[in-house]
Amino acid sequence: MTPEGVYAWRKSLRRQLIEARNALDPETLTRFRESIDRHLARGFPGLARGVLALCWPYKGEYDARFLARALRAAGAVTALPVVVAPKSPLAFREWHPGVRLESGVLGIPYPVGSREVAPDAVLVPLVGFDDAGYRLGYGGGYFDRTLEALERKPVVVGVAYESAHLGTIHPQPHDIPMDWIVTERGIYRRDGVRLEFLGAPPEGDASALASPVCYAGEVDPGYFEG
Prior knowledge:
Number of strands: 13
């Protein structure tokens, strides 16, 4: 498929997936969100010890604000992305209740006046994702540019609903795969060039899980301490 063909195909697929997501009823969205919250909290305990960047929910996306509240109570700093200029990498500014928000691109709120931070981990919303861990986003390329530009690469966790799992998005040279993907079903890890489904983490300390299951908090125990 040519780059032009991929662009047209993705545009059509993106519209279909967003329409399907928007059709989900509130009870289903809440159930999915609670499952994803549990998987992230149990599978990535390091999130409570660093700077976590998340996205304001858009068009039926996973709503990370509930998890963010719990993580802040445990000591995390939370941040939201800010569009600085068209076709430029995003900045991340600290956000918590009380920080002033303004409406930005697509009407999505962003923080004003708070400090800029470097995230240790980023929760990236996915319109779709494929068997190799590549993300179908909204087509602006902001996250790809941002992840490419960051001096210190954060742990990148894509978040989506299982219904958005595709065989391939026909990745292009500019596409950057996710390290991890979490859906209401459980956690995926990218091993080499493929996703491996690890399942839903059990209740308790994720660090007690036996090999070969390995979660982000175990990859580098000091990663979130810096």
